[in-house]
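ingest -> fold -> write
write: protein_1
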Amino acid sequence: MFKKTIKFLGLRLSIIIFVIILLVLAIVLGLMVGYGFLGGGNPSNIFNHDLWNEVMTKLSPGK
């Protein structure tokens, strides 16, 4: 019984980790497609810290 429980929990945990990895990949690919191909920028720029500072500055409320 204990082995079945451990196997079941291990399977569920591996499915959750797999879904999280797929979610992160979907977000990164979506950002690359949106910024690079639809926005006309370089797709690898989504990993640039300065780009995200600029985006956060534009989204922050005015002072």
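write: protein_2
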Amino acid sequence: MQIYWTKINAIIKETPEVRTYMLDCPKDFTWEEGSHTHFALEGFNAGDKPNRSLIRHMSISTLPHENSIGITTRIKEQCSEFKKILRSLEVGDEVAIFKTHSNVPLKREDKNVYLLSSGVGLATFRPLVLDYFERADHVNKIHSLNIDSSNDFLFTNIFESAPDKKFTSQFVDTRKDYYEEVKSLSADKEGLFYVVGSDEFLVQNIAVLCEQGIKPEQIMIDKHEHMLTEFLSIDM
């Protein structure tokens, strides 16, 4: 396993609680849209075993041509030790990334794509939307639906409806409104549904989609293959 140590080159305050840490791209480090990585803080591998409290599974919110690896995360006032350390880091500090993989690349199957996310989960979809804007081949259209009760919606400069690009974006702040919209979107029985959020959020979305007649193979979640089957086979 290769561990890449790299430096923070910028910290962007997206909203009062959300920050994007922009990291230098190490030589030979590559990724694609929808990728996640293991993001670790200094000291995580100092002992005989990795200190898992200093490691988090994070989505990469940028594309390679942006020349920085973006890690977007919410840091609340009351937060974990990991987030407290992260909050104290500055430009020039080092972090580690390793085990990078994409479970949710953009499928180009001449279908409509629906991106369903909660809060900062939208960071996973930012690269998919940018990739689609650059090359719309074999994607009919994309609709993004995000729920965030904080009302501080993310990446509004990108997640803005663009009819000429066949892209629509929708933000809601209540669960009731969100799930009503999910039911409405699932009227498209041929669509591809991407879901990003907490495990509870995934389970609830899968249940609603399956109840509406969407097949498990039409649902994409950011989980490894062995966990994918587990989530998609939950007794609804």
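write: annotation protein_2
The first helix runs from residue 81 to 88.
The first strand starts at residue 4 and ends at 13.
pipeline exit 0
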